[in-house]
Amino acid sequence: MKKLILTVSALLAMTIAAAAQQISITTPSQALKLQYKASRILGNDVELTFLVTNLSDNEAVINLVGGQYQTGMSGSVVYDSEGNIYEHTDVLVSVGKKALTEQYSAGNFPSNVPVKCHLVVKNVDKEATALAKVKLCVLSPQLGIANTGICFELNNVSFK
User: Over the stretch 70-91, which tens digit does the pLDDT of each residue have?
Assistant: First the structure.
């Protein structure tokens, strides 16, 4: 009986831990889908890998916006579990194997084909264990997403 109680307690604890680490993703457009793949620590930085899929019927140029899109216009922003905010030159993006940039990385996204993308947060606080919120902004005039863009939101992205 004691062994059964310990086993049930252990399973419950694992279920609660897994539920606490659930990543929620809000997609800002019916024409786009984001699928989180992984996170990893690179020195003081955290890299997220994800797939972005163009769900429209036609190929479209999609721009992932880094932390600093244009003068006077902010871009993607990240909040960690310790309350720190990362923006401007602390948030870099890339589409495919293109170089990371704090401005924007554009690529041709075929219809219904996932494209691997990356977001790197620079100099993350050593006490942080997760990215509480990631606002990844995108632009695509062909998909009707222009000017200030719209943002995917990822919540509760654990990296430790």
Answer: 655 568 999 999 999 999 899 9
d(CA 46, CA 10): 30
Residue range 57-66: mean pLDDT, rounded? 95
Alpha-carbon distance of 29 to 32, in angstroms, equals 6
CB 76 within 8 A of CB 136: yes
**Domains and their CATH numbers in the chain:** 24-158 (2.60.40.3230)
CA atoms within 13 A on the CB side of 16: 6
CA distance 121 to 90: 6
Instruction: Yes or no: say if 144 and 16 are a contact pair by the CB < 8 Å rule.
Output: no
- How many CB atoms lie under 10 A from the CB of residue 2? 6
Q: What string of DSSP letters covers 66-133?
A: -BEEETTEE--EEEETTS-EE-BTTEEEEETTPPPBSSEEEEEE-BT-EEEEEEEE-S--TT--EEEE
**What is the reported pTM?**
0.84
pLDDT digits 0-9 by tens, 94-122: 999 999 998 889 999 999 999 999 999 99
Do residues 119 and 68 make contact, with C-beta atoms less than 8 angstroms apart?
no
